[in-house]
Amino acid sequence: MTAPPGGTLIDRNHPEPLYVQLRIILKSMIDARQLQLNDKLPSERELVQLYGVSRITVRQAIKDLENLGFLQTRAGKGIYVTEPKPTYEIEIVRSFTETAEANNRKPGMQLLTGAIIQADLDITRPLSLPAGSNVVFIERLRFLDDLPVVVQRDWFAEAIAPGILDINWNNGNRSLYAEFNTRYGVVPTRGQSTLSARLASEQEAKLLQLDLPAAVLTLDQIAYDNEYRPVNVSSMAYHPVRYPLSLTQSRRRM
Fold first, then answer.
1. Which of 122, 193, 213, 216 could form a disulfide with 221 if both were Cys (CB 3.0 to 4.6 A apart)?
2. 125-149 mean pLDDT
């Protein structure tokens, strides 16, 4: 593989981290069929030399593309271009409000926390932000027909939605995705979800009207826009009876 026309596209003065820039370069080459299905990716050493970045940068870019389904490591053979496969995923691009209204239920919410915080690496990394970056953190209690059903926590970059904390979040029911769309033109279209279960914290049990010890269903997810840029990281704790989760089979669109 040779460098793209015009030479390297890595810009050390660009606000995007180096691994994000490299991920975008490799993804654009896959889209343009410069790297075709089943083509072998150059070695880490070759990518380091070609783009003038570290091995850590190369590995993170490759890991992101593997998570998105565009690359696959084949043991003892190397890394190859692949096609994202059908996945079973929760319909993350529909907001809580949209889901409630589609099922003829009345959505509601109570703001618990709205602040700018310094995020840990497990938040900044999926958001493609430098370690220790400030992010917007919003924590809400969600209701269906006036019953508490979900404790929802969201983290996202300040630059995505400047001034969003100035909104009166306690004025009726507000949808974060609706605010992203109507105010900022940001539209989550795809993502990755992890469904699990655990014991509720004391605060979660109190908010969801559960007697301790109690289990909650959890959903952790990352949403992306059409360009595979991260929009927000979410973590939700669901009442196990009032809000049963279901899975939808879908295929990612290229």
1. 193
2. 89
